[in-house]
Design a protein that fits this description.
Chain A has one domain. Helices cover 74% and strands 3% of the residues of chain A. Chain A has helices at 2-32, 39-56, 61-84, 91-113, 139-161, 163-173, 175-180, 185-207, 218-232, 237-258, 260-277, and strands at residues 128-131, 135-138. By secondary structure, chain B is mainly alpha-helical. Chain B has two domains: 27-236, no CATH class; 238-323, no CATH class. A two-stranded antiparallel sheet of chain B has the order 1-2. The longest helix of chain B has 27 residues, at 202-228. Chain B is globular and about 55 Å long. The chains are: A mainly alpha (289), B mainly alpha (323). The interface between A and B is large, with 44 and 38 residues.
Chain lengths: 289, 323
């Protein structure tokens, strides 16, 4: 029983992180039509920023987190301007370019941190919240959950309550029609990738003290993001959030009882099943051609 | 080239060069030559999958399926290479046939992701089920075949063996592409609704291309494991899949020989930057991006481009461009 409750809480916290980077991937795919294979590496760069600036040079955690967001956002904007914009007519070309970026970012990380063992960042927030004696939540995880929730709520407000958010959703629905209404596609693409990459940087920064940091950590991130995106329904942001939480709980429980590899295999099979049975995902809507 | 004689002469020259090549190289490079020959088969078989316009991300894993089949057949049932190679192809094709049912319900982006997921699931199974697949460490102890007293552990004899097998496979793949089936595959890619309207079952032909491609990459997997002697799940991960994509795209996928050019040129390039060690992936990444941005038709389009530059005639692009 204690294990179950503890697993549920861990799963929820994990779900918050999953949602952060999956929503970014969905946003970029929805607005720009590009599958950003380098999304996991954006998260990795966020985590490396924390490791280098905060853990190595002793800069305070919160400003470093901000720096991580801005840095990754910058990488995202550069990708849009120099890679995705010239190849906008061909989605495959955009995907291949993002694979190129993936390689480059991995090498950058190797050059900065070396190819040695994974790096650890000591949690900037000490202490553990103990509820009912047996549930233990380190403050660092609680902080991560709070910040993810806040970021997702802000994004939701932006997309549903502001004119710019409406414009962004309009482009995601129909690029040509939106352009005919006078929406600047290039500006909207910048915003989409800026927000998406920024969330990836935030996710990386929040996860940094809780995970092993190495140049190849992006691989698991992108697999998770794909599973969450497909299960939630491609193009559905709320679907991605629900799917992130469901999948995180699922993954945590299977990991506890059967091990991490089995958990990922089950997740991948789940994803293929969703693709067969309900290709629109749990929250997706069927769009007529 | 001028006519048929020219083609025959250049073919003979190429053959002579391929036969002489290993004797001009050092041991290390002879090794590399074998892997390059196998990789030629990998990209050529990948091309037949992409003919229908679907970019699968499971091809590397299919090679692993062939490799593991050959390994297990060799170790558990003590079958020789003459049986393990076709078996590797057949098992890969059979698994591909099973996967068709879920995967070809999807197209485009969904197919890409679906094939990636299915491949990762298979690969993780090799890691998870230590018996019989040996886990992360994989399996070892696979030996090359015995014919008379030729020592196939030496690179040069094994290279000739590889050359024969890969040559035969390439010939068959080329015949398939030039046959009626190949034309139908092209039609499925360029105008699927039209192809359907004249009675082509597009599902069946996409599945067929996938199965044929998987068969030949399975054979390639068998060839590789019989030379290398060991097999691990990580040989067939996303990394290798990405390399297949790079080879095909940098080479150009509009013609049969495009991917082959890609794998040969990039392998030579890779050898020439060997001293840069850890920077190599980044250089690869940069080459990939540059070729997408500046040479979207691949290396094989360079002769056409040069010819066009000199004729100064604005002609329409005859090769099928990107959608």
């Amino acid at each position: 029983m204690e294990l179950v409750i503890q697993s549920i809480i861990n799963g929820l916290i994990q779900g918050g992180f999953f949602a952060l980077f999956a929503v970014g991937l969905v946003l970029i795919f929805g607005v720009m039509g590009v599958v950003n294979f380098a999304h996991g590496e954006l998260v990795m760069i966020g985590a490396y920023t924390i490791w280098l600036v905060h853990a190595q040079y002793g800069f305070p955690y919160l400003p470093t987190l901000l720096l991580a967001i801005v840095l990754v956002m910058g990488i995202g904007l550069l990708m849009e301007r120099f890679l995705f914009r010239p190849t906008r007519s061909d989605p495959l070309a955009g995907l291949i370019c993002s694979i190129g970026v993936l390689f480059i970012l991995q090498v950058v990380a190797t050059l900065i941190g070396g190819d040695g063992p994974s790096k650890q960042v000591p949690p900037p927030l000490d202490g553990t919240l103990v509820v009912l004696e047996f549930i233990r939540i380190p403050y660092q995880r609680l902080f991560g959950l709070g910040v993810s929730a806040l970021a997702l709520l802000t994004l939701w407000y932006f997309l549903t309550r502001t004119r710019l958010g409406w414009a962004l959703r309009a482009v995601a629905l129909d690029r040509e029609a939106a352009a005919l209404q006078g929406i600047n596609i290039n500006v909207i693409s910048f915003i989409a990738i800026g927000v998406g990459a920024g969330l990836a940087g935030l996710a990386g920064g929040l996860m940094a003290p809780l995970t092993n940091i190495n140049p190849h950590m992006g691989h698991n991130v992108i697999i998770t993001a794909f599973i969450v995106t497909i299960v939630g329904g491609v193009g559905s942001l709320s679907g991605a959030v629900y799917a992130a939480i469901i999948y995180a709980l699922f993954h945590t429980f299977v990991t506890v009882y059967l091990g991490g590899t089995v958990a990922t295999i089950c997740g991948l099979i789940l994803m293929v099943l969703v693709l067969i049975v309900r290709p629109t995902g749990i929250m997706g809507v069927r769009v007529s051609e | 080239m001028t006519g048929k004689t020219g083609k025959i002469i250049s073919g003979l020259v190429l053959l002579a060069a391929l036969l002489l090549l290993p004797h001009l190289l050092q041991y290390h490079h002879q090794d590399l030559l074998i892997f390059l020959t196998i990789n030629v088969l990998v990209v050529a078989s990948y091309r037949i999958v992409t003919l229908t316009g679907e970019w699968s991300l499971i091809h590397a894993v299919m090679m692993g399926v062939g490799g593991y089949t050959a390994t297990l057949a060799f170790k558990q049932f003590e079958l020789g290479m003459w049986f393990t190679l076709p078996l590797a192809g057949i098992v890969a094709a059979a698994i591909a046939a099973l996967l068709c049912f879920p995967l070809f319900r999807m197209t485009q982006f969904y197919f890409l992701i679906g094939s990636f997921a299915a491949g990762e699931a298979i690969r993780l199974c090799w890691i998870q089920f230590v018996n019989p697949f040996g886990g992360t460490g994989g399996l070892s102890g696979v030996e090359p075949p015995l014919i008379g007293n030729i020592d196939f552990l030496e690179p040069v004899p094994y290279y000739y063996l590889t050359l024969v097998v890969v040559g035969m496979c390439l010939f068959i793949l080329h015949r398939i592409e030039k046959s009626r089936i190949g034309l139908i595959l092209h039609s499925v890619h360029w105008n699927s609704p039209l192809a359907e309207s004249v009675g082509v079952d597009t599902w069946r032909y996409r599945a067929l291309a996938f199965i044929i491609g998987s068969f030949f990459v399975g054979v390639a997997g068998g060839l590789k494991v019989h030379y290398l002697g060991t097999i691990t799940p990580n040989q067939f991960g996303v990394g290798f899949m990405v390399f297949i994509l790079i080879w095909v795209i940098v080479g150009g996928y509009n013609r049969f020989y495009g991917p082959v050019i890609g794998v040969v040129v990039l392998t030579l390039f890779d050898e020439s930057i060997r001293s840069l060690e850890e920077l190599r992936p980044a250089i690869y990444g940069a080459v990939l991006i540059a070729s997408i941005l500046f040479l979207p038709q691949g290396l094989e389009s360079i002769p056409t481009r040069i010819r066009r530059l000199f004729s100064r005639k604005p002609e329409n692009d005859s090769s099928p461009s990107n959608k």
